[in-house]
């Protein structure tokens, strides 16, 4: 399951991965949220991926849906911050880097403050 929160004033999308993901998590949750940011702010400046409760991908089409999401919105993402244990924090950025040119940085669960400070340094050029 994906839980998505959009920052009310900035082009920041926080995505919490909970348990196993399904393809519908991307089509019904992530895509509409990213589209709202694109319309409101001109893009997703920063994406925070919280993997602390992530247990993997469900059905085979889930990874395909995630890749389709990244391809669709890749040009509007400037930074991707990954918060999670070392195992996922290594795999997810590697996958993300294949589809976005955004700067991707990993943070351990105890580094939430460092993550937020890095996101706050987001260059706003290209976003409304």
Written description of the protein model:
The structure is a single chain. By secondary structure, this protein is of the alpha/beta class. It has a single domain, classed as STAS domain (Transcription Regulator spoIIAA). The chain is 43% helix and 29% strand. The protein contains four helices and five strands. Helix 1 (23-41) links the parallel strand 2 (12-21) and strand 3. The longest helix is centred in the N-terminal third of the chain and has 19 residues, at 23-41. The mean pLDDT is 87.
Estimate what percentage of residues fall within beta strands. Answer: 25-35%
Rg from Cα = 13 Å
What is the number of beta strands? 5
The CATH topology comes to Transcription Regulator spoIIAA
CATH superfamily placement:
STAS domain
Oligomer: single chain
Task: Write down the secondary-structure element order.
Answer: EEHEHEHEH
Cα(first) to Cα(last) distance is: 30 Å
Using the alpha-carbon principal axes, give the shape: globular
């Amino acid at each position: 399951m994906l839980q998505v929160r959009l920052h009310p004033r900035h082009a920041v999308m926080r995505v919490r991965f909970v348990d196993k993901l399904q393809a519908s998590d991307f089509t019904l949750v992530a895509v509409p949220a990213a589209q709202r940011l694109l319309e409101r702010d001109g893009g997703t400046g920063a994406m925070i991926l919280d993997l602390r409760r992530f247990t993997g991908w469900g059905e085979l089409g889930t990874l395909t849906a995630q890749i389709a999401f990244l391809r669709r919105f890749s040009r509007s993402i400037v930074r991707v911050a990954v918060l999670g244990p070392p195992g996922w924090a290594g795999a997810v950025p590697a996958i993300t880097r294949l589809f976005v040119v955004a700067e991707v940085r990993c943070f351990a669960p105890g580094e939430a403050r460092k993550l937020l400070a890095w996101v706050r340094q987001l260059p706003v050029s290209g976003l409304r």
